[in-house]
Amino acid sequence: MINGLHITAIIPARNEALAISYVIKSLQEIEHAASNLIDTILVIDNASTDATAIISRQLGASVISETELGYGAACSKGVSALDKTDIVVFVDGDFTYRSKDIKRIILSLIDYELDLVMGSRFLGQIQADSMTPWQEKGTQLVCRIIKWRFDFHFSDLGSLRAIRMDKLQLLDLQDRRFGWTAEMQIKALQHKLLILEVPVTSHPRIGKSKISGTFKGSVLAAFDLLKTALCR
Predict the structure, then answer these.
(1) Four-CA torsion 105, 111, 117, 121, nearest 10 degrees
(2) φ, ψ for residue 6 (rounded to 5)?
(3) What is the predicted pLDDT for the residue at 83?
(4) Deepest in the core among 62, 104, 144, 205, taking most CB within 10 A?
(5) What gap in Å lies between CA 35 and CA 129, rounded to an integer?
(6) pLDDT(211) > 80
(7) Backbone conformation region of residue 145, classed left if phi is above 0, alpha if psi is from -120 to 50, else beta
(8) Cα(76)–Cα(44) distance, rounded to whole angstroms?
(9) At what angle do helices 99-111 and 20-28 cross, to 10 degrees?
(10) Tell me, what's the pLDDT at 106?
């Protein structure tokens, strides 16, 4: 906790048994002024068939289940389960991001009195094998469409982000799949939230990607993002 603000980390996770321990431990070790920065770690077990939930509980994280497959469905389930929290930080369950970047996201939100802070891989560093060329090109295309529609330049659609809980509730996000992140950014513009992107490093994920790891996943993600960018 910092400045009396309760901070919750939400980790949507499906079959992330290989990585989830690293993610949880990285969140637990983030400190500010000699105390833990993140008060609650909430893992959303998105119909995993491995030990994701078991490992998460063993490490002290809270776990709730969402049987509907989809990134947006998992994130929404986590948000709906929150009671008293001031800031929500969304972190992938594949250990793509490290503690220093997560901490930077949160402190930027607080120190600059912003509403939404997002990590940008394109402003920071994209390590080899952490994004496919199609992911990079697709992300840049969606960002250009958002720029064309709303005259605001986002450099990335990355999932690492922190947002104030009252603003998140205001946005009333509806997407249940891969368009959830883009919907948040578009609605943040529509509601005139104070937004900032900060540089982060994207590391190669642990385990197989549900998006780039399969042809179907890649196509569905691209469709969802383009639909959201064009229609929201």
Answers:
(1) -40
(2) -85, 125
(3) 87
(4) 205
(5) 35
(6) no
(7) alpha
(8) 10
(9) 50
(10) 97
Could you tell me where the DSSP H helices lie in 35-95? 52-58, 71-80
Beta strand pairing call for 87-90 and 40-45: unpaired
- Please name each of the domains of the chain with its CATH number: 7-128+158-176+187-205 (3.90.550.10)
Whether residue 163 contacts residue 10, with contact meaning beta carbons closer than 8 Å, is answered with no
Measured distance CA(130)–CA(128) in Å, rounded: 6
Burial class (CB in 10 A: 0-12, 13-18, 19+), 133: exposed
Q: Is the pLDDT at 37 greater than 70, yes or no?
A: yes
d(CA 117, CA 207): 27
Tokens 């642990």 correspond to 206
How confident is the model at residue 228, as a pLDDT? 67
Give 143's Cβ-side CA count (13 Å radius). Answer: 15
pLDDT band at 222 (very low <50, low <70, confident <90, very high): low
CB 45 within 8 A of CB 64: yes
Per-residue model confidence as pLDDT tens digits over 45-78: 999 999 999 999 999 999 999 999 999 999 999 9
Say which residues have a Cβ less than 8 Å from residue 58's Cβ, sequence separation at least 6.
none
Write down the residue that tokens 């948000």 correspond to.
79
Q: Which pLDDT does position 53 carry in this prediction?
A: 98
